[in-house]
Specification:
Layout: E1 2-4, E2 10-13, E3 16-17, H1 23-34, E4 40-41, H2 42-50, H3 58-79, H4 88-91, E5 92-95, E6 98-101, H5 109-125, H6 129-140, H7 157-181, H8 185-198, H9 203-215, H10 219-237, H11 243-254, H12 261-265, E7 267-269, E8 278-280
Antiparallel strand pairs: 1-2, 2-3, 4-6, 5-6, 7-8
Helix pairs in contact: 1-3, 5-6, 5-7, 6-7, 7-9, 8-9, 9-10, 9-11, 10-11
Amino acid sequence: MDIDVLGGLAVREQGVSVTPTAPKPRQVLALLALNADQVVPVATVIEELWGTEPPRSARPTLQTYILQLRELIETALRQGDETRPGSAKDVLMTVPGGYLLNTGEGRSDVRDFERIAGAGYRAMDAEDYPQAAKRLSEALALWTGQALADIQAGPHLKPQVKRLEESRLCALDQRIDADLRLGRHRELLAELTVLISRYPTHESLYGQFMVALHRSGRRGEALNAYQQLRTTLVRDLGLEPSAALVKLQRSILVSGPLSGPAASGGTRLHGAGAGPGLTPTG
């Protein structure tokens, strides 16, 4: 079974789609797919679908959704390799306390992303910036949109989707860092302009944008970017920029071309979101 969640949900058995069209069965499949090869308790699925006050018919209704998914899987099995042993119940398994989606030897775009991004992080640690930029770009190319963009996420899917998005941002941050270290600051400006608009309180992206602008000879715009971020942080979150970002702003304010670690590489995010600080890499 092949699973794609880094965008819309797409689940295939032997190349045949088993993704239902109805919202609730899709939500069940999404939860099972994100936790593939692991037991998902019945109570977890019910809470995902109906929250903390499920209807009395929740269990039989869930069983109906599982049956519908198995029918799709069974159809896919018949259309695929007829020599494949087992049935739909061997793919979408009922186990003590819950359900398990057995992927067999299939692929998962989440697992591929984590594997390729991991290679990129190791290349960064080894200061092999061309390889880091390449591998992290490959990992990010697996994303076709927001994770599970076509699923109405409940209380269990939402934090998992958020975790995936944070992983995406981390890989993006490191890929931009690698590109800055390779002197690609001018090429990054258009991308970073879009990113800071999408993530208006993300300090790491603003720090990288400031570095790219400064190194492109646009010192005034780099300082304006800092003021734009500070205004947004104070207005929306009641926070001042981190000490490290203030230091970067001052270094741009009083200096000519950047030198040292900031010039060779930009900044690295510790954590994700608006609050974490930036520290020069090197």
